[in-house]
């Protein structure tokens, strides 16, 4: 599990569906997606992926995507988000370095 | 109001305590926006009606005496991460209702991955960890309720002074027309015009 699959799974459990494919990747390629996630982060591909179906907003609300250079998480409310930190699900602050994306 | 702790929260001497904070928020037009709910517990707290967000939030020791000094309490919210900066700068905090409640409860033991947490860990419901108060026996009472008198925000922390409603019993609440350099706070304005419970001459 990494931050991408965590966000996918968490939002799915909430009844929020994300696109199952992007460029050459599909949901069936999740294994590749997981194994390549560091490459995704280093090349900031995760920004491009979420920007393809989300818009930037100023304040977060439940189920918004919280993104920074280190990965992605899901907003619980306007102050806190839930994501993977050091391989464990963790509640984190939505600090000034994080950007907020709302699913279109 | 009662501030006694019942036997509900004293089983086997395992008593835990947390606080719930409520701040009413208005926009600069004076329209009510929402009530912000925070807790000094380390995970979210659900009291059956509302969710309280965990934050590094502290308040001064409460002092109650018979002096005519207006009763107030200072609340400090950590903002090192900057998560509250937007809220601090886009809402009117002063003159709004604020409430601090104390919860005293008996934590239950949790076993997670064969490790036993004697005083509980929290309830992981498949979402984020959250303390559901409905599953505990607990005592709850209002520790302090009043209005936010002064407020300031910096990159590191938000500071607010909450003034007890007691201060308003016999005093006419001053409208916001005082000179800010003359009175640095609402309380200063009241203290200046009140002497031993009556208007100063």
Q: For the terminal residues of chain B, how far apart are their CA atoms? A: 35 Å
Major sheet: arrangement of strands of chain B: 5-6-13-12-7-1-2-4-3-11-10
Q: Helical stretch count of chain A?
A: 4
Largest sheet descriptor of chain A: 6 strands, antiparallel
Give the structure's gist in a few sentences.
Chain A is of the alpha+beta class and 104 residues long.
Question: How is this structure best described in words?
Answer:
The complex is a heterodimer of chains A (104) and B (201). With 104 residues, chain A is an alpha+beta fold. Chain A has one domain. Chain A is 29% helix and 33% strand. Chain B is globular. With 201 residues, chain B is mainly beta. Chain B has helices at 85-89, 186-193; strands at residues 16-26, 32-39, 44-46, 51-54, 57-59, 72-78, 97-105, 110-112, 115-117, 123-124, 129-132, 138-153, 157-164, 194-195, 198-199. Helix content of chain B is 6%, strand content 42%. Chain A binds chain B through residues 10, 13-14, 58-59, 76-80, 82, 89, 91, 93-97, and chain B through 43-44, 51, 53-55, 81-87, 126-129.
List keywords for this structure.
heterodimer, A: 104 residues, alpha+beta, six-stranded antiparallel sheet, two-stranded antiparallel ribbon, 8 strands, globular, B: 201 residues, mainly beta, eleven-stranded mixed sheet, 2 helices, 15 strands, 42% strand
Please give the structural blueprint.
The complex is a heterodimer of chains A (104) and B (201).
Chain A lengths: L2 H11 L7 E2 L2 E2 L3 H6 L1 H6 L2 H7 L2 E4 L7 E4 L2 E5 L4 E6 L2 E6 L5 E5 L1
Antiparallel strand pairs in A: 1-2, 3-8, 4-5, 4-8, 5-6, 6-7
Chain B lengths: L15 E11 L5 E8 L4 E3 L4 E4 L2 E3 L12 E7 L6 H5 L7 E9 L4 E3 L2 E3 L5 E2 L4 E4 L5 E16 L3 E8 L21 H8 E2 L2 E2 L2
Parallel strand pairs in B: 2-4, 3-11
Antiparallel strand pairs in B: 1-2, 1-7, 3-4, 5-6, 6-13, 7-12, 8-9, 10-11, 12-13, 14-15
